[in-house]
Here is the input.
Amino acid sequence: LPYEQALLEGLFAGREQVKISELKGTFHATLQKAEGRILDDAVSRKLFTSRPDYSRGRWGCLGILILAIGGFATFQLGLNFGWGLVGLAVILVGMVLIVTARFMPQRTAAGRDVMQHALGFRLYMNTAEKYRQQFAEKAEIFTQLLPYAIVFGCVTRWAKAFEGIDTSASNNWYVGNTPFQAAILSSSLQSMNSSISSAISASPPSSGSSSGFGGGSSGGGGGGGGGGSW
Here is the structure.
């Protein structure tokens, strides 16, 4: 998929290995690119009527415009006619639009259906302990659904549901100094997920701060030149 390809290319960039620390401040642009492709994919699958970020942006800009008009109207009406409260109503409308802009993206019927399925699946994984008997009969499900547990942030609960259940037959991918244990793996995954999230979401230093530093250095150099002329 396009967004998976964007992540893969940005993550390795021709390398076979990469350290998490190397991604800090450099992966932000790739992440934004992948997010954009995810939204494009959602629209192409007709899950949304339009890209959610565009929809939020349009409504937010409209709210700011109405807020500005309301401020101008309040000033003029209050100054000339003493009717400033009329303009305050317009300001209130603008503020409401700005606050509610994040809720404006509209899902289609298909999008709502996918959302309900996802929420139901998350509930199933968060209450997984109720199904321990079924898991004992089908231990390979731990590995199959582990990626979803990571996405839903319920790795600990998912691992706890398999506590005491032998899952070694389906974990031939695991290599370590100790035997496979779901609880230990969940702890390691949470730590890794936290480190990766922190690294890939870090924004690069702003160019403005660099320019400011450069300007200061230049000014210092000029001062030195002035001293020489004395």
About this structure: The CA atoms of residues 150 and 189 lie 8 Å apart. The radius of gyration is 27 Å. Residues 208-230 have pLDDT under 50 and may be disordered.
